[in-house]
User: Which sequence fits this backbone?
């Protein structure tokens, strides 16, 4: 039996591409519309929502007239290192263009910078004493003549800026300044940067007190899948595989997961596949869905992290916040009246909505009805109930 | 069961990481799900695109290395895979790998040794060295258009030292997509789940769970075949219960299972004690190694948990280990991560903890416990209880009793085994008391050892009775609860207390539970309770159980139940007579005897029996008279209540009985009977008619009710 078993085509961890990726056309359309308008893009979403998958899809399906490169830059440790990476990405874009003008541009650069090789694994330069910041300012205006509109996707950009602390903080400010200048200079119109990061870029910038440096970016929010998209994803990853989900079971699965992040849907599919494989029954039942849910809940450490994170960055207000979350976990949701009642108890009637806003922004709660809040993910809600089994109203 | 030639070496040949490829393939029987997931992924996605990385989580000895080795062998021998992948299996003990570049250097060295054209980076800059090495790897892979499958056992150790390099590594994995990591780890460190860590949820986690029954069976069958030991096969087929026990004791870990099987097939136990001693000796190297891998604080906690055996809370554990609560909690979390400890969720926030592998727990008590802890013998009891089924255990206990009788066992060992058997729940109370008695009688037993023997059940019950007499219920119940036997004794005596306290429903519940656990004497009071509540089918059922098991007191109740159910007249009467032989003064039997005789048509005997009854009571009991009227003994009963017969009686009860009987014997209501008795008389009359219908099929009750209804309507008018 095991020999014939075909597992679902899930991907959890790395970005999903090709047959494992579910494209949302309306996001791609919005993206290219904004790029055409000359906007630079900021992808806003917590981790595991699918930013990298989206970016890689945009790179692969780049429309005529653009050359796209994706790069995870979280390994960058210095200001010069950052500019070097941009420099290389520009050259890689040009290198991939089929226009003669681009080839001429590359030839010129190869000679000027003693470049030995440009390949997918990077660029080899003999003499490496280049002032990259200055050089990219030189290079970008030339892209227009080279007939290259370079779109550079910088993944984990926020992390890089966040890491520039202490003595390096000025470097972060300088980088943000330079990037803003580039965005606002007409000479740089053939150059678009797409920013993304797992930690919110806004809050990182807020911390260094320079909100204006990014307020011109066009934010594209990336949320959970719709009900229909969730069903499409499940069908996509299970098509041609051994497990069989009937329509009612699929509905039940969706109800169980509640909040359709591709990651959690796929975790469920993987867990269901394991159960089905081990008992040798490909037909999925609601009981198997329940068991898979419990297993994920029981096995995954990252739910603990949701709690620990809150304890750490909301140290002083954790008891109040936890009261809200415990209520939402045990009662299914929390209306604003109950929030206010707790705020009264904790003497936070002045700013209680700030906490609700933060819980929404950080992916804990969502507003399900006007002034009624519930956990975004049933996984998290169940975890909270397990962690705090006793709740007195 | 002996097989002297079977040893660990032959097992190792088949199981270790150095085994030959063919042997690895042939003997790879478990962890098939995990293997098939990874293999299918490798086959399905050889080119560029998404790369699924894996983290194989499992306790020590759960089969991580074997799985990694199996994947390596497949890549090395499968043409399709070989075309697209290079597999590098980093040795289990990567003593030299501390930082990312240590690992990368190892990879580059390995690639170089495989003939790749490598240009080592010239940089001495630690900041950029890792990136340069990664570039070398990418180039090498690019040159052959292959992906690297990095099989990294103990990946947690590598990740622990990555620091900021983690971001560099992740970026390269994301940007190049030419390296696939399949890591093995005993724990899920924060690198894999903390939101602010680069590898947050980056790996697909495959948890190696304890082997299930079928997997254990398949593994052992294969070992039996490969090692040419039909005995092993025979063991699997004939002793499925013991196989399951072995699985539970070893927590389904293949490595421990291997040790166990070897012992099973090479040892012929003399006594339970020798057996456990031999097993513990054999298993010591495996567990010693496990223990030595734990830091001192964790070792201390593990030992305390072992001595507790049952699951305990963190607070209690902290107290026992004399450590701070928060330290214990933190260490427990690490032990859970390592798969050494299980957390048992409760409905409160205080969870319970226990050692995952029960056999490891036994070994810890056996080898690490103080003499006092060892003398508690709980470990031996647990071993015996887990290893033998109930019948075997009782048989072994009986053998031990024989040894005691023959005084052919040393007092030390005898006392330990008696103690262990005393704590085994399936040993019947009587056998347990016999073992204790015989052990106490051993001539060479010293005072201390004798003193450490547990009290007999009869002694415990004696104490309970004293406490009940003083109405010290809580203490009495606590004492009963200290009985370890699970043969219903506890419930039986608890029911006696409940009865004293007039907790009727509890009494029945406890007695039924005692009977369900095999304590047949509980059947008698159960039958009596059902009889009392006129549930005669049930009273017959339980009386029959007791009667068949020769429980005293059941014969009479069985006879009466048969009568009440109108079944088997002759047998019922004969049983009742037998009951009176067993207990001539049994009131109920004496009173029912004339009734059953009337039912049987033995009227002469009936009259004699009633005479005896009247002599005993001075008057004929009303109950008996009513039942005799059921059997239509109107005249006989009326004679019983003649004034001459009752001459001299001053008893009000007799007088009332006479009035009722008079009323019953007259048509309608007797004018002599005071009006106050009307309701009782009507009720009894109906009873008589109903019973007559039941025994003789007459329509008396129906006619009576039909007749009564119009007169009542008239009265109302």
Assistant:
């Amino acid at each position: 039996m095991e020999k014939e078993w075909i597992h679902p085509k899930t991907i959890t961890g790395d970005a999903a591409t090709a047959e494992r990726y579910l494209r949302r056309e309306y996001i791609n359309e919005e993206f290219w519309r904004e790029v055409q308008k000359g906007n630079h893009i900021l992808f806003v979403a917590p981790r595991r929502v699918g930013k990298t998958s989206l970016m890689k899809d945009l790179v692969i399906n780049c429309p005529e007239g653009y050359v796209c490169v994706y790069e995870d830059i979280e390994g960058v440790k210095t200001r010069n290192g950052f500019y070097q990476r941009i420099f290389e990405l520009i050259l890689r874009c040009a290198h991939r263009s089929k226009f003669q003008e681009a080839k001429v541009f590359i030839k010129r650069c190869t000679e000027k910078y003693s470049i030995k090789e440009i390949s997918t694994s990077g660029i080899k330069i003999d003499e490496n004493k280049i002032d990259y910041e200055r050089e990219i300012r030189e290079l970008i205006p030339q892209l227009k003549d080279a007939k290259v509109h370079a779109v550079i996707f910088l993944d984990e950009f926020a992390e890089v800026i966040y890491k520039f602390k202490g003595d390096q903080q000025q470097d972060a400010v300088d980088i943000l300044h330079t990037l803003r200048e580039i965005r606002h200079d007409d000479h740089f119109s053939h150059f678009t940067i797409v920013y993304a990061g797992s930690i919110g870029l806004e809050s990182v910038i807020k911390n260094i007190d320079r909100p204006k440096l990014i307020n011109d970016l066009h934010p594209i929010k990336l949320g959970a899948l719709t009900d229909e998209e969730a069903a499409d994803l499940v069908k996509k990853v299970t098509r041609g595989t051994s497990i069989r989900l009937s329509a009612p079971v699929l509905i039940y699965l969706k109800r169980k997961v509640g909040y359709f992040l591709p990651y959690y849907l796929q975790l469920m599919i993987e867990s269901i596949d394991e159960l089905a494989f081990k008992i040798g029954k490909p037909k999925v039942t609601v009981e198997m869905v329940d068991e898979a849910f419990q297993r994920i809940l029981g096995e995954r450490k990252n739910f603990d992290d949701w709690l620990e994170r809150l304890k750490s960055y909301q140290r002083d207000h954790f008891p109040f916040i936890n009261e809200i979350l415990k209520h939402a976990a045990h009662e299914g949701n929390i209306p604003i009246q109950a929030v206010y009642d707790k705020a009264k108890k904790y003497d936070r009637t002045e700013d209680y909505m700030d906490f609700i806003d933060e819980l929404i922004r950080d992916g804990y709660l969502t507003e399900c009805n006007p002034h009624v809040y519930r956990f975004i993910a049933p996984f998290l809600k169940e975890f909270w109930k397990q962690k705090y089994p006793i709740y007195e109203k | 069961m002996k097989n002297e030639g079977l040893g660990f070496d032959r097992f190792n040949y088949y199981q270790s990481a150095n085994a030959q490829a063919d042997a690895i393939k042939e003997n790879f029987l478990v962890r098939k799900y995990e293997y098939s997931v990874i293999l299918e992924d490798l086959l399905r996605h050889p080119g560029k695109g998404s790369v699924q990385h894996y983290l194989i989580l499992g306790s020590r000895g759960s089969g991580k290395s074997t799985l990694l080795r199996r994947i390596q062998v497949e890549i090395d021998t499968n043409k399709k895979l070989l075309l697209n992948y290079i597999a590098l299996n980093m040795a289990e003990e990567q003593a030299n790998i501390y930082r990312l570049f240590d690992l990368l250097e190892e990879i580059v060295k390995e690639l170089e040794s495989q003939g790749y054209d490598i240009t080592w980076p010239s940089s001495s800059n630690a900041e950029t060295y890792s990136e340069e090495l990664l570039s070398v790897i990418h180039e090498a892979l690019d040159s052959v258009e292959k992906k690297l499958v990095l099989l990294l056992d103990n990946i947690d150790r590598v990740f622990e030292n990555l620091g900021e390099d983690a971001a560099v590594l992740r970026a390269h994995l994301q940007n190049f997509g030419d390296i696939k990591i399949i890591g093995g780890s005993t724990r899920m460190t924060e690198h894999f789940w903390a939101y602010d860590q680069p590898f947050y949820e980056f790996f697909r986690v495959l948890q190696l769970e304890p082997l299930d029954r079928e997997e254990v069976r398949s593994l052992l069958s294969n070992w039996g075949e490969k090692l040419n030991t039909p005995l092993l096969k025979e063991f699997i087929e004939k002793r499925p219960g013991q196989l399951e026990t072995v699985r539970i004791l070893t927590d389904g870990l293949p490595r421990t299972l291997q040790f166990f099987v070897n012992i099973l097939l090479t040892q012929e136990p003399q006594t339970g004690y020798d057996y456990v001693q031999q097993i513990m000796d054999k298993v010591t190297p495996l567990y010693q190694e496990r223990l030595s891998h734990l830091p001192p604080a964790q070792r201390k906690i593990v030992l305390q948990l072992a001595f507790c055996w049952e699951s305990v809370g963190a607070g209690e554990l902290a107290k026992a280990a004399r450590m701070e609560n928060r330290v214990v909690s933190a260490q427990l979390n690490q032990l859970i991560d390592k798969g050494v400890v299980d957390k048992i969720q409760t409905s409160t926030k205080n969870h319970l903890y226990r050692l995952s592998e029960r056999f490891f727990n036994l070994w810890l008590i056996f080898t690490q416990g103080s003499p006092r802890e060892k003398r508690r013998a709980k470990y031996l009891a647990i071993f015996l209880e887990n290893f033998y089924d109930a019948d075997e255990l009782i048989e072994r206990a009986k053998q031990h009793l024989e040894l005691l009788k023959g005084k052919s066992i040393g007092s030390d060992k005898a006392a330990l085994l008696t103690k262990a058997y005393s704590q085994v729940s399936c040993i019947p109370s009587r056998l347990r008391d016999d073992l204790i008695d015989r052990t106490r009688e051993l001539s060479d037993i010293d005072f201390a050892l004798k003193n450490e023997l547990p009290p007999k059940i009869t002694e415990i019950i004696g104490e309970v009775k004293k406490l009940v007499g003083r109405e010290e219920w809580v203490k009495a119940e606590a004492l009963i609860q200290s009985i370890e036997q699970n043969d219903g004794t506890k419930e039986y005596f608890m029911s006696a207390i409940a009865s004293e306290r007039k907790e009727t429903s509890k009494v029945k519940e406890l007695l039924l539970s005692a009977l369900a656990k095999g304590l047949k004497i509980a059947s008698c009071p159960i039958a009596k309770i059902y009889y009392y509540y006129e549930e005669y089918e049930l009273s017959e059922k339980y009386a029959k159980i007791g009667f068949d098991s020769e429980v005293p007191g059941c014969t009479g109740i069985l006879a009466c139940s048969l009568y009440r159910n109108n079944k088997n007249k002759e047998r019922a009467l004969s049983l009742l007579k037998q009951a009176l032989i067993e207990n001539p003064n049994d009131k109920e039997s004496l009173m029912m005897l004339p009734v059953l005789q009337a039912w049987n048509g033995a009227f002469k005997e009936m009259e004699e029996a009633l005479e005896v009854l009247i002599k005993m009571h001075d008057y004929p009991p009303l109950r008996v008279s009513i039942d005799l009227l059921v059997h239509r003994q109107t005249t006989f009963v009326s004679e019983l209540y003649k004034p001459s017969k009752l001459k001299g009686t001053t008893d009000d009860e007799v007088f009332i009985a006479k009035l009722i009987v008079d009323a019953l014997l007259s048509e309608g209501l007797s004018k002599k009977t005071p009006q106050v008795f009307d309701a009782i008389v009507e009720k009894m009359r109906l009873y008589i008619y109903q019973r007559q219908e039941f025994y003789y099929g007459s329509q008396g009750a129906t006619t009576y009710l039909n007749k009564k209804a119009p007169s009542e309507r008239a009265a109302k008018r």
Notes: Residues 90 and 137 of chain A are 11 Å apart (CA to CA). Residues 79-96 of chain A form the longest helix (18 residues). The mean pLDDT of chain A is 88.
